[in-house]
Amino acid sequence: MRLAARHLLFASLALGLAGTGLLASQDPPPRKPPQPQDSAKYIGARVCRNCHRLPEKGNQYDHWGRKTPHVNAFKTLGTEKAREVARERGIEDPQKAPECLRCHLTAYGRPMEDFERTFERVRTWGVQCESCHGPGSAHRTLRTRAAARQSPQEAKRLTTIDIPPGEIRIPDEAACRSCHNPESPTYKPYDHKTFLARVAHPNPMRGKKKQAGGKEQEPEGDAGGSGTGLR
Ligand code: HEC
Ligand code: HEC
Ligand code: HEC
Ligand code: HEC
Predict the structure, then answer these.
(1) Beta bridge pairs of residue 115
(2) Which of 105, 163, 201, 209 has most ligand 2 atoms within 8 Å of its beta carbon, as the pocket-test mutant?
(3) 199 pocket-lining for ligand 2 (C-beta < 6 Å)
(4) Is any atom of ligand 3 closer than 6 Å to the C-beta of 133?
(5) Ligand 4 centroid from CA 79, angstroms
(6) Is residue 66 classed as helix, strand or coil in its secondary structure?
């Protein structure tokens, strides 16, 4: 993580220099330093929830857990319909079949070392945040540190900040199509605009306030469960 933070620092320095024209004459141009996300691990939606459940900022966690089918993608493989689809392909249990899990679970098939232990508890939560946003451990660490640097006064204020590019991915159409494609046995023609509208979870505060170091407030009370059908 320390390494990732250094790369980030380097990236912003390089950008700063480029902005002043100091790097302009260098040849060849400096290689893009590794992005924090390159070495990040999967941490699971439960960790994202710590910071992404504020109603004022769009409550991405509950939106995903209650309003989109992605959270249930693994459960779906336990239905009669799924077993039927699987049987036609000579597959006995779709919830155990790599041919199905690769699109119905998060980061399926990745080696063990790509996951942090927090992921284990939520392994069966279907298509989670990190299926679309990529592994989130570097982002988590950088944001936790930034929050810790704040004064108590700053921490109480509800603000939102811009995240440097490369810290956590914003998925494009191709990322959606990596699962929404004719290799899906139940494929429904994929129209990006309509499909995106059905899962979008924007932060309404974005662009209104641009203050560095906005603090995430931990949401109160129990969560996760009700409405999502999750354990
Ligand atoms: C890791 C694979 C995966 C990725 C990536 C993915 N999806 Fe999905 N998506 C699924 C699965 C599996 C389902 C079916 C879930 C279920 O019904 O249990 C689904 C269902 C949906 C549905 C509901 C479809 C319906 O017929 O009701 C929408 C809308 C959707 N996805 C949009 C998107 C968008 C937009 C993106 C990209 C931003 C995306 N998905 C990325 C796997 C994925
Ligand atoms: C199916 C893919 C998909 C999943 C699953 C998903 N997201 Fe997103 N997310 C997107 C896309 C696409 C955008 C950018 C476009 C949008 O929101 O309309 C986005 C944007 C965001 C943003 C930025 C919003 C803004 O306006 O600045 C946050 C924060 C976020 N997601 C958090 C999460 C969290 C936390 C989870 C899990 C609880 C999650 N996402 C699950 C696809 C996904
Ligand atoms: C320690 C707190 C924290 C955790 C944990 C956390 N985030 Fe964030 N995230 C933030 C903050 C702060 C922002 C900036 C927006 C804001 O102020 O709300 C942000 C922004 C984002 C954005 C928008 C990025 C952009 O380019 O605009 C996405 C996407 C996102 N988070 C996804 C996730 C996902 C997925 C997880 C879990 C894997 C996660 N976050 C975990 C604090 C956190
Ligand atoms: C290439 C990715 C991919 C693979 C592989 C995949 N699925 Fe899916 N599955 C999806 C997506 C995306 C959806 C939601 C939209 C759709 O049906 O196109 C979905 C939806 C479903 C649904 C719900 C359909 C409905 O109309 O309610 C079932 C059931 C299902 N899949 C079963 C399976 C089974 C069983 C396997 C393995 C034999 C499998 N899937 C393999 C991507 C995939």
Answers:
(1) 42
(2) 201
(3) yes
(4) yes
(5) 11
(6) helix
Dist. CA 74 → ligand 4 center (Å): 10
Of residues 159, 132, 124, 125, the one with CA closest to residue 143: 159
Does the pLDDT at position 69 exceed 50?
yes
Average confidence (pLDDT) over 6-18: 45
For the chain, the first-to-last Cα distance in angstroms comes to 31
Ligand at shortest distance from the CA of 76: 1
* Helix boundaries (H) for the chain: 2-20, 45-49, 60-67, 73-76, 80-87, 98-104, 117-120, 129-133, 137-148, 152-156, 173-177, 192-199
* Residue 166: Cβ within 10 Å count: 19
Q: Average pLDDT of 49-53?
A: 96
Least confidently predicted of 52-66, 95-109, 121-135, 215-229: 215-229
The token pair at 82 is 């799924």
**C-alpha 29 – ligand 2 centre gap (Å):** 33
> What distance in Å separates the CA atoms of residue 150 and residue 221, rounded to the nearest whole number?
24
Amino acid 38: pLDDT:
80
How confident is the model at residue 27, as a pLDDT? 63
15-47 per-residue burial string, b: 16 or more CB within 10 A, e: under 16 = eeeeeeeeeeeeeeeeeebebbbeebbbbbbbb
